[in-house]
Give the backbone structure.
Amino acid sequence: MDSAARDDVRNRDIADTLRFAVVSVDYRLAPEHPWPAAPDDCEAAALWLVEHADARFGSSRLTIGGRSAGATLAVATLLRLRDRAAVDGSAPPPSSSAPTSLSGQTPAGRHIVDEYFIRAYASHVFDRTRPDISPIYGDLHGLPPALLVVGSDDVLLVDNLAMAGRLSAAGNEVELRIYPESPHGFTGHPTATARTALSGIASWLVEHVTQP
């Protein structure tokens, strides 16, 4: 839903506060453009950045992330790039509760299996456990450090716990932060908890992007 411009204020804040260049992908939306249109667009943008970021923005150090559906696309894009051997050592920023499974077979996924957005995005796919749709089922080895941010009242909390566990079991550096009494996508709300979470995200990004 909506467009990349929806996050302009948040992205500008990141750019101004952290002095990062921020690229937001206006990927195609379902149902007009179901899977794999969105990850195809994200991969195309990421590959362009791998090739041109140093010349255009003065650094080849890249992060990737998103919230809600954007977080799922971020992980799917990382898996694609890893398999292409296109990136090495980039740090993905956090997801604010990522629906890492659209299969309807995980504990949290069963709660959203009939939601319109899943039908719009992937109703034409028989097996929605394929990692490009549900990254939690993927081979997660060899990924950069990850931060997952989720609220304790998020319907997808259990899947975030599982995703953090699978990332860790695959040998990746992962940090999971759970904020009390917070729903899905809480970092987009004008609350003290959201401000605290966003401040923590900024600190995590600076630490990981600027380290040798």
